[in-house]
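[Structure tokenization] protein backbone as discrete codes

[Encoding] learned vocabulary of local backbone shapes

[Begin record] amino acids and matching fold tokens:

___
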Amino acid sequence: MKLIKTYDVDLSEEWSTLLQELLVASFPEVYPKDRLFFKQIPQGRVLAFAPDNQLVGHVGIDYRIMNLNGKPIRVLGIIDLCVSSAIRSQGIASLLISEVERMAKGRVDFVLLFADHEELYSKNGFKTVSNTCKWLKIDHETLTTVGVGHQEVEGLMIKEVGSMPWSEGELDFLGYLY
């Protein structure tokens, strides 16, 4: 398996097409068919290619400061993790998660995500947390700001990768919700 880190501006037309197909196939009910992001372009991506150069996996990453109970924290967010349905359950998602963690080690406090399949992330050391979240609400169809959300959000999971412990309470995303 070959992993390639890239930015959207560096994606070739071929890779963009392959990525669009993978994202739409992985999230058929919700993913836009005309772009490579849901609400905002990820700051980076890790693409997984099989030995035959087929794109088989993807994870978007977002690096930002958030505010946890009045204190700034450095967070690397996992966005739109997906693996081709033809080869799931072969460890590719865990490989992508490990690569994100490798990038985060010593540089950030937490890796954060919203999970549809919590068992995948739990087996990779993530834990479910219950924080009241505050975030910029974006309409994913019109790509416009529609307000500020403020509530507990289901599926929030974190992994401590720095020296700071996580705490329950208020988590301000200082931006959009992944």
